[in-house]
Amino acid sequence: MKSQNIDTDEINILQIVSTIWHRKWLILAIIITSIFISIYCYYSIPNTYRSNINIQVNLDSKGGMSSILSRLPLGSNKANNYGSEIELIKSRKLLSEVVDDLNLNESQLNIKLKNKEPEPLLPYIKKINTYLNELFSSLATKKNKYESLSKKILITKKLQSMLSVSYSDSGKFLTIKIESYRPELSTRIVNSIAKIYMQHKEKQIKEQQKNTLNWLSSELASIKKDIMRSENELIPLSGNEDSPDIRVMLKLKEDELNSLSSKKNELEQKIEIDEIHYKNLEGVTEPTIILESPLIKSTPQIEKAQTSISDAENKLLELSLKYGPKHPSYIIAKENLYNEKSILKRQVRNLLNTYISIFEIETKKIKSLEKLLSKNKIELQKLRQSENIYLKKLREIETYRSLYNMTLKRFQEAQSINNLKQEIATVLDYSLVEDAQKTSRQNLISTMIVFLGFFISIFISLFLGIIDQGIHSKDDLNNLTEAPILTNLPKVKNRKKIGQSYNFIQDKIYLESIYRLRTRLRTIDKNKKMLSITSAIPKEGKSTTVLHLAKALSELEKVLVIDIDFRRHSITKDLNISNEKSGLSDIILNKAKFSDAIIRNSKEGFDILGVGTALDYPNALLSSDMMGKILMHLRNHYDRIIIETPPVQLFSDAEVVSKLVDATLLIVKADYTKKKDLTATIEQLEQININILGIILNQTVFTSKEKHYDKYIQNSKA
Questions:
Q1: Range of weakest confidence among 50-54, 161-165, 237-241, 284-288
Q2: Is a pLDDT exceeding 50 seen at residue 4?
Q3: Is there a contact between 155 and 106 (Cβ–Cβ < 8 Å)?
Q4: What is the CA radius of gyration of the chain?
Q5: What pLDDT is stored for residue 7 in this prediction?
Q6: Is residue 545 pLDDT above 70, yes or no?
Q7: pLDDT value at position 8?
Q8: What ranges do the domains of the chain cover?
């Protein structure tokens, strides 16, 4: 087998050209057909004329309304764009008005101006048109989906198909184009579309201005209601003659809360200090020590008692100097001092009890102040919440008033603009009949059809070449195998036998190809006396090739032809050998001798050994030692032995026999044998080391160059 390790990315140009050339007549037929179609289209496609008109559109202005609506957070304005303008122009509503404006009917739209047909082609074009009309009428089995629609809607839909609208962002304008079969009709339609569009825009501006005024008026009323509602909600918080303003109340409450907090703090500090002094006096009974405490403040009674004690002590001291302790004066003075001290002690105790009561009262007063502070804090918090509401309402009222003033200003502005003529679209220049452009594309379409036909034919040829698995030429064989191609036999008509005798082919090219095969066989190796001829599949021309090769070799050598195709025994039948005649099978089974089985064909010059008795399973006989001995015996008596075997892909007989001969020839029928069958056959034979001497390409179609041989021969005879 030829190596298949070829770079798949490499394109074989010669193979592509060969594939295309092999189907040249198909390509030519498709190209000629496309030429006829292009000619028909050139004279059948009507001329079309295009008129256009430019409309400058300023959607940013909106007729002066953008200065109002763009500054308001709410409103009836919706985002507009050029896409919506294009859809408006294409809408059935606008185009139906165009139909009414121009009083269009279907016949006006269908009047066509075609290229004038040449006189020789006129009858043919008419016949084709008639045939196509009949064909389309027969195919139109379904009801037209527009049949139930009114004529006006049909005309409107026709206009939609004729219309195209584009937008230029640089110039801010729309371009409307109409294509029809007549220039004046295109001009009328495009001008009418522009006029109706302008009317729509004027109506839209008026409606928009009206809607804007209505909306602004309703917004003013709504804002006014909001202001009144907010003011009513603010009245309870603003104060009056009976109740102060919320801010005054908040100030008073804050002052009161600060005063209570200050009192509470002072009282707490005092109680804390008094409590410390009181703890220092716990367990103290001496009045003088108690009076030294900051907690106890002297009173006139205590000061009087202290003076009396001082006087009593002085008097007692004087008496102690004069009298003894038992003197009555001294005793009286001492009792008097004791009484004065008792009085002071009692007064100090009473004063201390009084301060204890005051301490307890102050403690209770702190608790009362705490409750009062908590209450005032809650009230202050409520007042602050009310103040927040109050301030919020003030801001709300201020916002509403600002919005009201702005809306009122816009309302007044809109009223002023409403009296002015606003334009958001301007027709730059209406279309004229002279400006209509002929847009017919007959030349382009006709040329494209021819080129398309050419490319389609090339594509079909390449596609058929890709899917085609047949073998057509020597190039196909060279791409499949390295085995040499010994010859290629031309395809001839007469290969049948006539009467009881086999009719050998007399075609000079065929015979020359057979002689070329004979020469190559004798040149390659004369020692290869025994040859088997086989094929991949049946009906590839083995028998015919074997007989003609044997006849050609018999002119120079002694030749024996052996037919071992026990199933079809083609050679036996072609040479009209009786089925009862002994043959190869009889010799192998020792039922006949060589002299009984071999037929001497003196007329053609070679001998024949037929199959003999038919066998269902001849493989065992062919594989026997007897078969080898028979062939060895025959080799000694003939210069050349040619054996026809069954197809390799069907039976193993060919493989068995090929092992016994010197070389094997493969017959390949052009345009019949598949590549996969030949590849499989060669692989099978190579696996068992069969010597494939070469390939014979049978029934090929010769090129004109190869056919020059026949002409050369005839001229030489003349």
A1: 237-241
A2: no
A3: yes
A4: 66
A5: 42
A6: yes
A7: 40
A8: 13-200+425-453, 246-418, 471-717
d(CA 251, CA 259): 12
Q: CA-CA distance, 171 to 174, in Å (whole number)? A: 9
Q: Is the dihedral of CA 308, 311, 317, 322 positive or negative?
A: negative
pLDDT > 70 fraction of the chain, expressed in percent and rounded:
81
Give 690's contacts (C-beta < 8 A, 6+ positions apart): 655, 658, 659, 664
Q: How does DSSP classify residue 482? A: -
What is the DSSP annotation of 594-627?
A: HHHHEEEETTTTEEEE---S--S-THHHHTSHHH
Higher pLDDT, 668 or 169: 668
Nearest to 159 by CA among 177, 184, 183, 147: 177
The whole-angstrom distance between residue 142's C-alpha and the CA centroid of its chain comes to 35
CA angle 582, 555, 504 (to 5 degrees): 65
Quick: pLDDT tens for 683-696.
989 898 888 899 99
- The reply to whether the predicted model has a pTM over 0.85 is no
Gap between the Cα atoms of 673 and 647, Å rounded = 12
CA 489 to chain centre: 57
For residue 451 the two structure tokens come to: 């080129």
CA distance 628 to 564: 14
Q: In sequence order, what are the residues at sequence separation of 6 or more whose Cβ sits closer than 8 angstroms to the Cβ of residue 357?
A: none
Q: Which two tokens stand for residue 108?
A: 């006006």
- The pLDDT assigned to 141 comes to 46
Output 531 or 394, whichever has higher pLDDT. 531
**Coil, strand or helix: which one is 232?**
helix
Q: What is the CATH number of domain 471-717?
A: 3.40.50.300
Angstrom distance (rounded) from CA 395 to CA 399: 6
pLDDT reading at 476 higher than 50: yes
Q: Residue 636: phi, psi to the nearest 5?
A: -75, -15
Give me the residues paired with residue 166 across strands: 175
d(CA 394, CA 77): 31
AA identity, residue 114: K
Report the alpha-carbon distance of residue 473 to residue 536 in Å, rounded: 17
Helix/strand/coil for 702: coil
Residue 296 CB partners (closer than 8 Å, separation 6+): 290, 348, 351, 352, 355
Cα–Cα distances (Å) from 660 to 52, 100, 520, 530, in that order, read 89, 98, 22, 9
